[in-house]
């Protein structure tokens, strides 16, 4: 029996002695997480460890699933690269549904290394919010591939829509539709109507084996109508949230409210419909009118109302490594601590239907694990050891005050992070 796979990763890895928070079950004061071939094999307080396993001592530390930032623009709006690294918005048309975020991601963006230092092992990358229909999103790991394709968890994952001020400002400056909130809703509805007709014609052509010209924009919208992808709506004001709900109910869409700054104003409406909210960023100013309801208390309000929610950074609005700072602020403003742990791990995975792979320490899940110096919700806690798919990808050295990132391949040397 081989003790390692073709990439040199040990077949068995055991994280031992730490306080284990599986998230999907009760904490284990002193536990073991056993990894086999990049997946979690067992979790408990008395897990047998196979001979030859690599042992990682987590004594006195906290062990959690890798964190998941469910709304960010890492790689597609790159750090320090200015316009050269900005592939966020295509504003030549209000409907660019056929665009895919995965085609614009630079995995060497330094923000991916920052993500590792913040214990984030998975992220959803979205197009920007200038368009009513902006393109398809992707869920991916934050490290490990030679290309972005080797880091993808699911693509396409969702279809991004921008509501409120961003589309208005973008197209009013051009004198083009949509220049108003009703204009944004109109663009979305008309596109969905077009996609309904297109999908019916495409399906009929397929049944009769007739030639059919594919339209990538309408293909993306047809996926949304069939609920193969979720509807990721950038929305702040409560009236814009109500419009998104109205359209989602008209067309049977899998609505995921992103940001939800004014969600507390209609929290009962959201709870009645069991709609999820990806809240954030919390560490930000009220920089425009539609952020007037911004509050660090929003996650606690949603939680107490029974609304499913997660926390996000909206990187680069807030640097991605500050995801735990979002959680710390929410706890300070009334969110239950265990709910905060869940909001950056399992909750976003469940909301986006990825919980069969990520978000918890359960057998069969990807071995994305972070060893923390303490409770990650505490602001002075640090991610000390990060594993993705059972491979160590980041370690913190307290003596040197630096973190080291594993090489992707032999061609790319490991990097060093300093404060």
Structure commentary:
By secondary structure, this protein is of the alpha/beta class. Helix content is 25%, strand content 24%. The protein is built from ten helices and 20 strands. The chain has helices at 110-117, 165-172, 181-208, 216-225, 238-251, 267-272, 298-304, 323-332, 337-343, 346-351; strands at residues 12-20, 28-36, 39-44, 54-57, 62-65, 67-72, 120-125, 135-136, 138-141, 152-154, 158-162, 230-235, 255-259, 277-279, 309-311, 369-372, 383-388, 391-397, 402-405, 415-417. The strands form three sheets. Strands 1, 2, 3, 4, 5, 16, 17, 18, 19 and 20 form a ten-stranded mixed sheet that branches. Strands 8-11-12-13-14-15 form a six-stranded mixed sheet. Helix 3 packs across helix 4 (216-225), helix 3 (181-208) runs parallel beside helix 5 and helix 8 (323-332) packs antiparallel against helix 9 (337-343). Mean pLDDT is 94; it is low at 1-6 and 410-419.
CATH architecture of the largest domain: Alpha-Beta Barrel
Q: How many strands in all?
A: 20
- The CATH homologous superfamily name of the largest domain equals Metal-dependent hydrolases
By CATH, the topology of the largest domain is TIM Barrel
Query: Count of DSSP helices?
Result: 10
Instruction: Please give the largest β-sheet.
Output: 10 strands, mixed
Helix- and strand-based class?
A: alpha/beta
Query: How much helical structure, as a percent, in the residues?
Result: 10-25%
The Cα radius of gyration reads 22 Å
Mean pLDDT: 94
In quaternary terms, these chains amount to: single chain
In the residues, how many domains can be counted?
A: 2
